[in-house]
Please model this.
Amino acid sequence: MSTATPTTPADVRGGPPLAVPAAAVAVLTVAAAIAGIGGPRPGSTPAESLAYSATHPVVIGIGAALLLGTGFPLVVYAATAVRRFERLGVAAPGPLMGLAGAVLAAAALSVSALASWTAAQTAGLGDAALTRTLAWLWFGAGGVGYAAPMGLLVLGISVPALVTALVPRWLAVTGVVVGVLALLSTFALATDVLYPLIPLGRFGGAVMLLAFAVALPVTRNAGATR
Model:
């Protein structure tokens, strides 16, 4: 009589496929950006910020929900990536640093979402200065506050993947470049010359998460075979 040894499916041991949370992050990021078209910008006047918040509460609410929702699959992705690297024998601190970046990015999105929602809810008070302040917080947290930690996440995945040759070299190098530039968006707080680095961190980071979700092997054997 043979006794079957219970096994645990690979996807349970290693978490969900990376492509699932990566796709969710990408879709929600784009959707939130579309919802934010026409919203207050750094150059908007207090009156313009107040007028938009007062006349578009539903759109702002949808955008806030999308921003808040983006943080959840982002953290799931990072946690799953940590487990994937462990299974691949990578003991470097990079993936854990990436997880920290994902948590910081998700927290920034939460602040941005709640600031925008609050701006819409309080627009009826007619306080343009308050609405403008909330709009700045909305932009800052969802811009630099999100892009820079996203850079840490991308670097945390790219560097160990490059060192251990788990993915094609060009992909890992691209990830390092995107991650470094996203981190440099931190200095957009000092000069608006670096504002272009913010969308690079937001959208470029989402693209890199998708690329690594596809390229990163599940096991060492799979990586060697590829």
